[in-house]
């Protein structure tokens, strides 16, 4: 079955109503498993209904991508660039309709949805439109080789060439659904791969609409497909499908490990951005202005998407000379934040994605209390109904072994831990299974640079939580495998082929 023509700027309700099924082979396809409701985390009302995939639906999507791959992989880079650039333009043009839909299904504040959800997705397509024409060949100097039983001697030339991997399964997270998918699909498509996307079950509606938009941008049928499902079965079927060559996953470490096991059976390539337990290290030499910056940086765990971000500095490690001052400042910061309806421009802290996630975060806080930690502020459910809200929470007196100091919570919870020496700070920062994003705040940037080298973390921010869009992004240890971002994203979705010839 096919979709109706899309209005230029549909409302959130109109956009959700257009979703009839999965996006497979360039059209809406009726789902084999019916539909399931997608709920607004702030109102607890149904935003729309997403299709429930069966194994047959997943198989159809993979087969469509497989069939489309030979032609797309041979498409001129300039043509691929034009399609991705047009997709960026369409995302920007449709922002007025997409922003309310993304906001409603994610529960993000309107400020975050309007500035960092849809616009960032458009920018990622724009970036990889440029990336499609980046050089893919590294020439190697000719080498004189002696004759051997293998072949005659001579001057041998060679080049290393990046080739597309094939069919890429993009399994994405719920915190930034459209942005996360754009960050995977755009470089994958730019390199000549085809894609089957499986968005998070909580908020897949905007991701489904991306298929329609890419077709309008000129993408051939079958090159980009989307299947959704309420449970784990859809993702499991996609990951295990023999027609998939690579899996790009963003989500929890536990799911990532399960994917790695499945992928290993058929040697699928993997790119996995998993959990984080970021540490912000505040050194004793930080000046007053730097201390204010550090407070704001740690406070972003509460003020930015309610802590539902893997790079959040959820642990603040503070030199004992500044510890009480930082704890007091963080308490005041947390208690100054407005909790409420995310479509109200004055709201800073919106809801969590679901009742289950709210309950999970509350269980972590209760567990910290039971283990002897002190909840300085927050820790109780705010008087905001309906919606899945958790108040900004600051925990102290937590030992390093406590669950709240070790595991990713993915909510507005910060744990403050004092240290006496730089060696101790490094040991605490490195003392979890994670290693995604850490931060160092110091007057001496050279000292911070040297300290960064001791941190087992894929990313380190010095005196900032700002990002650089061209850096390789990924984690050490349980925080993932591989890197994307900038040109590194193009590398992630390609294989190196060596081509050798006699000169």
Automatic annotation (TrEMBL):
Transmembrane among keywords: no
Family to which this protein belongs: Belongs to the aldehyde dehydrogenase family.
Key word Amino-acid biosynthesis present: no
Name of the molecule in the record: Aldehyde dehydrogenase
Pfam families with a match to the protein in the record: Aldedh (PF00171)
GO molecular function: oxidoreductase activity, acting on the aldehyde or oxo group of donors, NAD or NADP as acceptor
Key words, A-Z: Oxidoreductase
Residue ranges of every copy of the Aldehyde dehydrogenase domain listed in the record: 28-499
Listed SUPFAM superfamilies: ALDH-like
Alphabetical list of InterPro entries matching this protein: Ald_DH/histidinol_DH, Ald_DH_C, Ald_DH_N, Aldehyde_DH_dom
